[in-house]
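ARCHIVE CARD
Drawer: 12
Card no.: 0347
Subject: one protein chain, sequence and derived structure
Cross-reference: see card 0346
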Amino acid sequence: MIELLSESPKDIDIYRQIKEKPEFYFELSGDGFSELTNQVRWQKWGQTNFFIEVTTTGRNFNKNVLDGLLTNNIIKTKLEALIPNVNLAEYKMVRKVGLTTKNGFMKADALLVKKMPDGSFDIILIENKLSGTTDYTIRQKEAWRILKTAPHEISVQYRIAGDGFEFFKDQKIVINPNRCIKINDHGSSTLNSITSGDINVIDFTPY
């Protein structure tokens, strides 16, 4: 792996994204990666036991955030401050939701869903990053381009069901940009170092 990075230093960004998002290596064969001279080797690396081991920290951080999302005081307080008039206790969580993009799909770490009196749904998207400097994946950027434009609709890749709601394969759901939240840490899988400054609405402007 050191040899791979020394041949192409920019690939450190790819390594960082794979480390945090194990499913990201599936994207390496898709559109947008033709400029990566080592994409085939990255795919192979992504399937090794070493790959499984080095992604542990990122997976644990994601799990810890989602497990504590509705109970951790710092996270809960900041989320409710970012989204006025929201009571997170009224929302149901579904994890790892595939959302269809232009050239594939991204997996949202979680959706918080509340069924409204008129039958519509208020949905909050949660994206976790182990580090605040880690870039979004190609497919995530495609999703942000879709969601930034009215009517802010995106299709679910597969059927998902939660307590009191169900979305079918290819069903379009509305996720407003001000309800897309990024939570990041500083390289640790615990929540001890998270501050309110690490929880923000995703900035769609660059996309």
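Annotation on reverse: Strands lie at 92-100, 105-115, 121-129, 153-155, 160-162, 165-167, 172-174, 180-184, 199-201. The chain has seven helices and nine strands.
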